[in-house]
Amino acid sequence: RKEVEQDPGPFNVPEGATVAFNCTYSNSASQSFFWYRQDCRKEPKLLMSVYSSGNEDGRFTAQLNRASQYISLLIRDSKLSDSATYLCVVGTSYGKLTFGQGTILTVHP
Amino acid sequence: GAGVSQSPSNKVTEKGKDVELRCDPISGHTALYWYRQSLGQGLEFLIYFQGNSAPDKSGLPSDRFSAERTGGSVSTLTIQRTQQEDSAVYLCASSFTGAVEQYFGPGTRLTVT
């Protein structure tokens, strides 16, 4: 079983749609939680950290459920520029990151 | 300021040759990480440096892989006797100790023929 599991998609949605990604992790000792975004043939970039209280950044909302070891990302009002691979990531106390396989999102006109 | 830089950006090598990949972290970042991204495997951790020491090298796939960091700055990942399964993008990231965000370099795309 992979340490971080995501639905690989692909998700194909029209502009303006709301899309949700889910992720589970197996290591209950994980300390930090993130969503990264990776564009084709580019390096990953931090989209947002994820907290148990839930956090929102504009059109993006992330949620962590430590009891269920479950992380989610909601994107509202999708834009063409949101097309990318979204990586669910968990980290140790010293920053070692474990990545999910990524979920491919394509937003079309 | 300058971000994480890696060189070379692309490397094609013959099976059995040794290769060296270089990472220049952001100035002042004490933590440095190497990851590998290959088709079908996703992004996987290789090694973590805190200063010049490597407290976690658990992700290095075999003893053909080694890494060092000097002066608390530049790091070199060396792969000896390369194999075709070593073909991947090798990514370096750096951060301040205990910081949330890691900044990734653009990667080195290694192709072993």
Beginning-to-end CA distance, first to last residue of chain B: 37 Å
User: How many strands appear in the DSSP assignment of chain A?
Assistant: 11
Tell me the fraction of residues in β-strands of chain A, as a range. Answer: over 45%
**Coarse shape of chain A:** globular
Helix content percent band of chain B:
under 10%
Mean pLDDT of chain B: 94
Order of helices and strands of chain A: EEEEEEEEEEE
Uncertain parts of chain B = none
Unreliable stretches covering 5 or more consecutive residues of chain A: none
What portion of residues of chain B belong to β-strands? over 45%
- Please write the string of helix (H) and strand (E) elements of chain B: EEEEEEEEEEE
| Sheet of most strands of chain B | 7 strands, mixed
Q: What is the radius of gyration of chain B?
A: 13 Å
Number of helices of chain B: 0
Distance between the termini of chain A: 37 Å
Rg of chain A over CA atoms, rounded to whole Å, is 13 Å
**Main sheet makeup of chain A:** 6 strands, mixed
- Strand tally of chain B, please? 11
Mean pLDDT of chain A: 94
Q: How does the overall form of chain B come out from the CA principal axes?
A: globular
Topology:
The complex is a heterodimer of chains A (109) and B (113).
Chain A (H helix, E strand, L loop, with lengths): L3 E3 L4 E4 L4 E7 L6 E7 L6 E5 L5 E3 L2 E6 L4 E6 L8 E8 L5 E3 L3 E6 L1
Parallel strand pairs in A: 2-11
Antiparallel strand pairs in A: 1-3, 3-8, 4-5, 4-9, 6-7, 7-8, 9-10, 9-11
Chain B lengths: L4 E3 L2 E4 L5 E6 L6 E8 L3 E9 L2 E4 L8 E5 L5 E5 L8 E8 L7 E2 L3 E5 L1
Parallel strand pairs in B: 2-11
Antiparallel strand pairs in B: 1-3, 3-8, 4-5, 4-9, 5-6, 7-8, 9-10, 9-11
